[in-house]
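One record is set out below.
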Amino acid sequence: MSNKSSGSCLCGKVKFEVEGNFESFFLCHCKFCQKDTGSAHAANLFSTTSKLSWLSGEDFNKTFHLPSTRHVKTFCSHCGSALPSIQNQGKLIVVPAGSLDVPVKIKPNAHLFVASKANWDEGLEAIPSFDRLPS
């Protein structure tokens, strides 16, 4: 039985499926990922053995390669949502965890580039939590 994970962008124009298993899940705190996400870190799943299929909207995919780096971001040109990318000459699939429409079956393996960690990304478990926007 094969393992399939489906996902999409925020506007729903792009839909994809990943067939296979993710070998790793990293939370990257580098400055590039902070800029990409507008947040403290990126959360990406990695696979060297899975197959990525675009179910719809592949024409909306845009890919940005940061010059002189290995940093790549693929996104929906309509809504800007992060989407999977194929990197390392087609040998690596990188899938933003938040782009999946199914539960992620593995836990993160590690935090990366913590020397660049946002100064406000500390002790967040201690601040109040709400199920929805507070009134």
